[in-house]
Design goal:
Keywords: Coiled coil. By secondary structure, the chain is mainly alpha-helical. It has six helices and two strands. The longest helix is centred in the N-terminal third of the chain and has 105 residues.
């Protein structure tokens, strides 16, 4: 709109110059004609004044809009900065600690299952290798092949589970390092800004209990951040034995009127026999004595 008004102003300025020249000429010949031209000139000048007025209003509104935008932006930044220490930062730290706790609870459940399966498979491998020695020289090729195939599958499972244990342990150690760094940063900020909420030490104690239960390095480093006088009540954790899981109590304040996230009980692992890896419960009823193996071998040759 400003460009349009400027173009109109230039056009009107040219008209004024032409009319002023005409006035000078008409004054010499005819005063009446000069009066008429003077009226036209006055009208053109009024149009120019109006155009300048509208143009100045448009510029003024644009400047005002920019001023309002800048003032609003500064106000929003000021509100965000004032809200960060009290609300956002403290809430983020609390959510982070809760996520770390849930991570280590899940980690312990997975580690328990892996260790149980490793022990079970390792025991099965030893037993099957002993049977192979007993069958040596008896020409029971079918039975020997089945046992060797089972041992191979179990060896592969043991290797995979061992690699997973190493990976889980490395991830958990990295998580402890990250937790320590975040705690140091938050406690440092807490000394500067008294408006930040203190750390939930009961939640931190739960995390320490989970880390200590998992057996990974780092629980001692975390202990120094927990006040010794913190009163704690039991938290449900999972302890794995053989192929079933049972619950044991460890300290946690979350049972005092707060929701406790219970760790799921591990499902019973399938029983493995000398000739199968089936998870069918009926498979555990198969007899595996040496005489039974011989009997099955003889029957298969009939």
């Amino acid at each position: 709109m400003l460009l349009k008004l400027e173009a109109q102003e230039e056009e009107l300025g040219a008209k004024i110059s032409v009319l002023e020249g005409n006035i000078a000429e008409e004054k010499k010949s005819d005063s009446d004609e000069a009066k008429k031209v003077q009226e036209q000139l006055q009208q053109v000048r009024e149009e120019v004044r109006y155009g300048n007025l509208v143009g100045s209003l448009t510029g003024m509104m644009n400047a005002y809009a920019k001023t309002v935008e800048a003032a609003t932006s500064k106000a929003m930044e000021a509100v965000a900065e004032s809200a960060m220490p009290v609300d956002i930062a403290s809430r983020k730290m609390e959510n982070y600690l809760q996520q770390v706790l849930e991570y280590f609870q899940t980690e312990n459940e997975c580690l328990g299952r892996l260790k149980t399966r490793l022990e079970d498979h390792t025991s099965k491998i030893s037993s099957l290798k002993l049977e192979l020695k007993q069958l040596a020289g008896l020409r029971m090729s079918t039975t020997t092949a089945q046992i060797e195939q089972t041992i191979e599958s179990l060896d592969e499972s043991v290797e995979n589970d061992s690699n997973m244990l190493v990976a889980f342990t490395c991830d958990a150690t990295s998580m402890v390092d990250d937790l320590i760094n975040r705690l140091e940063a938050y406690l440092g900020a807490l000394k500067v800004s008294k408006e930040l909420h203190p750390i939930h030490y009961d939640l931190l104690a739960d995390i320490h209990a989970e880390i200590k239960y998992s057996g990974i390095c780092g629980s001692d480093r975390l202990k120094k951040y927990i006040p010794e006088n913190t009163a704690l009540s039991p938290i449900v954790m999972t302890e794995f034995t053989d192929t079933t899981a049972s619950s044991v109590a460890t300290p946690s304040p979350r049972e005092n009127g707060k929701k406790v996230k219970k760790v799921a009980t591990a499902a019973a692992l399938p029983k493995l026999t000398w000739a199968t890896l089936s998870s069918n419960p009926a498979a555990s009823e198969i007899k595996t004595s040496f005489l039974d193996i011989q009997r099955e071998e003889l029957e298969s040759k009939k």
